[in-house]
TrEMBL record:
Residues 9-62 form the DUF397 domain. It holds the Pfam family DUF397. It comes from Actinacidiphila epipremni. This is DUF397 domain-containing protein. InterPro entries: DUF397 (IPR007278).
C-alpha cells in the first residue's frame, strides 16, 4: 500500500532512532491494523499493513527474542 493512501495516519518512530533518515515508522490505524514504512521515503514510499493478530505475533516474537542475532 502507498503511504499516501493512509491519509490521516499518525506516524511515529522510536525515540532511540538517529536523525539520519534510516528509521522505520509505525502508525496504529483506527481499525486495529498497524502500518509500517521506511522514513527515508518521506511518506511517498510503500507501507506494509498488518492485521492486529499479525502485529501481536510479531511483537510477541520481538519480546521473546525470536529475532535476536546470535
Amino acid at each position: 500500500m502507498k503511504s499516501s493512501d493512509l491519509v490521516g495516519a499518525v506516524w511515529r518512530k522510536s525515540s532511540r532512532s538517529a536523525n539520519n533518515g534510516q528509521c522505520v515508522e509505525v502508525a496504529f490505524l483506527g481499525d486495529g491494523r498497524v502500518a509500517l514504512r521506511d522514513s527515508k521515503d518521506q511518506g511517498h514510499g510503500p507501507a506494509l499493513v498488518f492485521t492486529a493478530g499479525e502485529w501481536a505475533a510479531f511483537h510477541g516474537g520481538v519480546v521473546d527474542g525470536e529475532f535476536a542475532a546470535e
